[in-house]
Amino acid sequence: xxxxxxxxxxxxxxxxxxxxxxxxxxxxxxxxxxxxxxxxxxxxxxxxxxxxxxxxxxxxxxxxxxxxxxxxxxxxxxxxxxxxxxxxxxxxxxxxxxxxxxxxxxxxxxxxxxxxxxxxxxxxxxxxxxxxxxxxxxxxxxxxxxxxxxxxxxxxxxxxxxxxxxxxxxxxxxxxxxxxxxxxxxxxxxxxxxxxxxxxxxxxxxxxxxxxxxxxxxxxxxxxxxxxxxxxxxxxxxxxxxxxxxxxxxxxxxxxxxxxxxxxxxxxxxxxxxxxxxxxxxxxxxxxxxxxxxxxxxxxxxxxxxxxxxxxxxxxxxxxxxxxxxxxxxxxxxxxxxxxxxxxxxx
Length: 347
Description:
This protein is of the alpha/beta class and 347 residues long. The protein has six helices and 32 strands. Strands 6, 7, 9, 10, 12, 13, 15, 16, 18, 20, 25, 28 and 30 form a 13-stranded parallel β-sheet that branches. Strands 8-11-14-17-19 form a five-stranded parallel β-sheet, with no helix packed on it. The chain has a five-stranded mixed β-sheet with strand order 21-26-29-31-32, with no helix packed on it.
């Protein structure tokens, strides 16, 4: 039986930081599923990873006599990832491609008559246990996928292409535009437009988020807003880790790129094209810098930045993960210590 390994291209992986600090490229979610899950569905076989050394304990490489190596940054039938913004730019096409594969020859759970559908109702798919009541669902631009045991509360307005993955929650009155993925166990409210949330993260309250990528175990407090367009309408520069400077993107719209376990307090304001590393804690008045290195804490305009101690970081991570009955493992701890060491170069 052939063995498949998804390989991290070192240059691509570096360009995709901070999203690849804690995972191989193929573990990124684009569309409904991760890149690895797309490959496995297409190949009909499981895949392992060939990645950087500090990730190998959690993501081991299983090579055999008949191993085929595949590029981890290639999304089957959709395109390639090279930069963080490719995640949200390719997301709409990836949702449509995933929807076609996942729902083929399957019947959706019935949609409650309390909902109002604009467009083709056959482009709405509810997995077992999904609960949708009193929502407005628009499929004129693409399908809407509601995962297993996910909930969409009353008064929500959803436009496809859209994925609300398993156990995710859309709070009352949320406004979610197309090309958006709400990853597993995420909770969202307010207004979202072309956002990709990986998993286990929350933006549960009012506030705008657009053209953004949010890692795992992040939290955006009530009233947190992130600009995705400059006042002068000029194209955007974004922090690039390998170059250690801001580089042109050619984009007019780009919001926040947020690494795992980063938190933003209530009423936080994030400027256009802000990059926040892993384990950051942003709170207080005023805008933080457009690039905040991993394990940094910022407490207000002019207050400067302090290091987040690893003891404090692990305490917060354990408390948050325990709410989802997930343990912070020794492998995870080793990864975060490695990320902390790497991040020192960007301070």
